[in-house]
Design a protein that fits this description.
With about 350 residues, the chain is an alpha/beta fold. It contains 17 helices and 7 strands. It has a 7-stranded parallel sheet, sandwiched between helices. Helix 12 links the parallel strand 5 and strand 6. The N terminus is likely disordered. Bound molecules: guanosine-5'-diphosphate (GDP). The site of guanosine-5'-diphosphate has 15 residues, from helix 7.
């Protein structure tokens, strides 16, 4: 007589997606158990995060990044519980054009910090990643040593087309990393778009990586980004490039003095470094430490974080209102009608906007 599988495991295996052959041996039971264990509760995740469990931290960040409303609900509950344990880190933003050496720098800088006994988390803001199908931290091999370092946590950038959405996910991930005991958070961003503004508004210190170029050192660099920088590090100051880098340092120093003084009273500094040779890395960290201690002494540190929180409150409302508006089914339908009417010259942009906004009232 052929043995029928017992009712209990069969029901489970259907539910948990375990194959028929698997169910015939004990490993199937273990497999079911482990799959079950892979659905921890909010409390399980929070407790594990607070103990510094990286797997739990990754899972919570995945929930933050999810578009599933149930996941978001869970993410919000986790963040709420983690919040009292957050806020205790130094947050550093690092930007620079592709090729300037950001990942090489973060590898050297992060490793320097873990050797000093710090716990370093690296996150990224890269709003273009879903368009380009790549992310700036997607290729983890870019930071080979740091990835293997038990005191470092590297998270590829959240995907999403809206900068606001990506930035929100990063901000929430910062909270989770801090709750997990990371005392230094590095946020990387590409130096080509608006993402610097978003990153600047979530970090304590903003570092711009630059290259020494021939001729006009400021060519191609957005004024706004220089204005945001607390320090400029001229990377690849090695080999034949060292002389040029030293000249660039003089140029940047001169340029920085032309900008208005910062609210913090801090005069931005220009440094030289070679991420590849790990030169100048410890000096940059010392500079950041000096900045942080000065900003804490004159209360600017707290003040800036408060300002940032207010900014993010307003930003979150803006994002939410926009996404609610554009996702309303009636708006979706009518928007294309109104666009067609504009194209055929039958309405004006203002009349169409008025009409659509009233529809949503
Ligand atoms: P990213 O695109 O800004 O992240 O830049 P990468 O870190 O990927 O670096 C781009 C290239 O520049 C790589 O080939 C690196 O090896 C090289 N590179 C980075 N830092 C230095 C440096 O300090 N000196 C030299 N000579 N090359 C560097």
């Amino acid at each position: 007589m052929s043995k029928k599988p017992k009712q209990h495991p069969t029901a489970l295996h259907e539910k948990e997606g375990v194959s028929d052959s698997e169910i015939t041996n004990t490993s199937a039971i273990n497999s079911i158990k482990s799959k079950r264990q892979s659905q921890p509760t909010t409390d399980d995740l929070v407790n594990a995060i607070l103990k510094g469990d990286i797997t739990a931290l990754s899972r919570a960040i995945t929930l933050v990044e999810s578009t599933n409303p149930q996941h978001l609900q869970k993410a919000n509950a986790i963040i709420k519980q983690c919040l009292p344990h957050a806020n205790k880190s130094v947050r550093i933003g690092i930007t620079g054009v592709p090729g300037v050496g950001k990942s090489t720098f973060i590898e050297a800088f992060g490793t320097h910090l873990t050797h000093l006994g710090k716990k370093v988390a690296v996150l990224a803001v890269d709003p273009s990643s879903s368009l380009t199908k790549g992310s700036i931290l997607g290729d983890k091999t870019r930071m080979e040593d740091l990835v293997k370092d038990k005191n470092a946590f590297i998270r590829p950038s959240a995907s999403g087309t809206s900068l606001g959405g990506v930035a929100r996910k990063t901000r929430e991930s910062i909270i989770l990393c801090e709750a997990a005991g990371f005392d230094t958070i590095i946020i990387e961003t590409v130096g080509v778009g608006q993402s610097e503004t978003a990153v600047h508004s979530m970090v304590d210190f903003f570092l711009l990586l630059q290259l020494a170029g021939a001729g006009d050192e400021l060519q191609g660099i957005k004024r706004g980004i220089i204005e945001m920088a607390d320090a400029i590090a001229i990377n690849k100051a090695d080999g034949d490039n060292l002389k040029k880098a030293k000249l660039a340092k003089v140029e940047f120093n001169r340029a920085l003095h032309m900008y208005p003084a910062k609210d913090s009273g801090w005069q931005p500094k220009v440094m030289l470094c070679s991420a590849l040779n790990e030169d100048g890395i410890s000096e940059i960290w010392e500079l950041i430490e000096t900045y942080i201690s000065e900003a804490k002494n004159n209360t600017f540190f707290e003040q800036k974080r408060n300002e940032q929180n207010k900014f993010w409150l307003l930003q979150t409302i803006d994002d939410r209102l926009k996404s609610d508006f554009y996702n309303a089914s009636e708006i979706k339908k009518e928007l294309s009608n109104q666009l067609a009417l504009i194209e055929s010259g039958k309405t004006t942009p203002f009349a169409a906007a008025e009409y659509l906004l009233k529809l949503n009232d």
